[in-house]
Design goal:
2 domains; 5-stranded parallel β-sheet; elongated; about 325 residues; alpha/beta
């Protein structure tokens, strides 16, 4: 598995995004707010920390690289650099669980940080990792920082759901769109992060992950290839009741702390959507509406099972039964 984004020296793809950041910084026209937007798990936070390291180091390389051996790299990896602040969901000290949202207290800390003189004479950088996790009060507090930025201070926001942000936040940032990673970059990253996998396994993960290296690595750790085989079996032909029950028994078991139910339903919806798109491209769009309705129904079913603690096995059997209804 890769290190956390703040400690990750490996970065592939997103050449246009890197070039935009490099040009803005070296031309002296670096905007004070940037919104790195794209699907989950494609490297948005890794790029944000990479650029923060490069900016704080006063580097000039177009690859935005700082050597892993550099003291500054190690300080940022350890979250001890005095000119970098991260806004993100934190651990609740009382419950020892991750907060469900970014709370306003964190943004207030960042606001105080931004008003300080840079400790090392350069920039002050704030990274908002997962900006869509801000509640309305938190978002408004961040907006004030974007409206009145101090000199030589920059905010880097990452989000997988830009539509959930305040329009005023989006309008005050330069949006940097980041797309899903192409297959060659995915294969190279899997070779770096999961060298134990066979070539065929890596290729299958690239197919399943749809350009998200984070998703590919989660699939590798959660028996995703085996679960995808069950999904494809169910999509290919009607599943008999006994086989549906056997699949449900396999999926509903929690193994080594991994709840495979959520992964199975995510794969089921993703594979259904992929096959529907492929069918539409080939001119077989007559069942498009039915497939979309089924995709929506599976999403509703998953939310209800998880939210109301319903029987997972029964839900899986029902889903498999619905797949080939005429």
């Amino acid at each position: 598995m890769p290190p956390e984004p703040r400690a990750n020296p490996v970065f592939r793809g997103h050449e246009a995004a890197m070039a935009a950041l490099h040009h803005a910084a070296t031309s002296g026209r670096l905007h004070h707010g940037w919104l790195l937007a794209g699907p989950p798990g494609i490297g948005k936070a890794t790029l944000a920390f990479r650029f923060a390291r490069w900016l704080l180091a006063g580097a000039t390389t177009p690859e935005l690289a700082v050597p892993e051996s550099a003291p500054l790299f190690r300080r940022i990896a350890a979250a001890t650099h005095p000119d970098l602040f991260t806004i993100e969901r934190r651990m609740n000290e009382k419950t020892e669980k991750l907060q469900g949202e970014i709370v306003i207290a964190t943004v207030r800390e960042a606001n105080k940080f931004m008003r300080l003189t840079p400790a090392e004479g350069g920039w002050r950088v704030v990274i908002v990792d997962g900006a869509e996790d801000m509640n309305p009060n938190t978002a408004n507090a961040l907006l004030k920082m974007l409206e009145e930025p101090p000199p030589r201070a920059i905010l880097l926001l990452t989000t997988a759901a830009p539509g959930r942000l305040l329009p005023t936040i989006r309008s005050r940032c330069r949006v940097l769109p980041m797309a899903a990673l192409p297959a060659p970059d995915m294969l190279a990253l899997l070779a770096e992060y999961a060298p134990q996998l066979e070539g065929a396994e890596r290729a299958r993960l690239v197919e399943l992950a749809e350009g998200s290296i984070g998703n590919a690595l989660s699939l590798a750790a959660e028996e995703g290839i085996a679960l995808a085989a069950l999904v494809d079996e169910a999509l290919d032909a009607p599943v008999k009741p006994a086989r549906a029950q056997a699949i449900a028994d396999t999926v509903a078991r929690t193994v080594e702390g991994v709840d495979r139910f959520e992964r199975f339903f995510a794969l089921l919806r993703a594979r259904l959507a992929a096959r529907t798109r492929e069918g539409a491209r080939r001119g077989g769009g007559q069942n498009l509406a039915a497939s979309v309705a089924l995709w929506q129904e599976f999403g509703r079913m998953e939310r209800e099972v998880l939210g109301l603690n319903l029987d997972k096995r029964a839900a899986i059997v029902v889903a498999l039964t619905q797949l080939h209804r005429s």
